[in-house]
Amino acid sequence: MDRQQQQQHGLPVVNHLLQHTLRSICTESQWVYAVLWRILPRNYPPPKWDNESGFLDRSKGNKRNWILTWEDGFCDFAACVKSFKQSSSGDSEAASAEPLQPELFFKMSHEVYSYGEGLMGKVASDSSHKWIFRDPADQDSSLVSPWHGSLDPHPRTWEAQFKAGIQTIAIVAVQEGLLQLGSLDKVLEDLNLVILLQRKFTYLQTIPGVFA
Asked: What range(s) does the Transcription factor MYC/MYB N-terminal domain occupy (predicted)?
């Protein structure tokens, strides 16, 4: 289908590339949800320190000038319900809870994080990554980023996600912001995955219109 046909059929393909990318991360792995938090200026008009490529250079100004906001997200709710039913059978404590529902997932979209501050902001500004597990017993001393050794409090919505069956949350700094992944299983830290995700989102940035 050429560009003219796409326009005639009302298919803004570029606008769906990010959603498709987030969905593919979940369908091709153990992750059940993927969210992109985008780094944006705290105030408009944005600071006047553009680099030669035309993108805002965050290294030239105060980190407080930037925030992380929800850009897009995908969650396989059917997989959440199925896994939750299997794990809660015979478990009275789990049976009293609920699986990850749209209301809880999209509640994250109201969160705003300060760039360079807190767990999310520091991982984004340091271009790093962290793996967080629901069960403290799952913390492996060989892992690069143990959650319970961090002094930074976790985001408010995470505790409810852990109660809803999420066992692993990973946050990875990418070109445009921070990628947050959630899994119903224990997923060990994987540096190859980190590099793959960073390359994937660096490529997305080169496509006009994806991050308008």
From this structure: 18-201
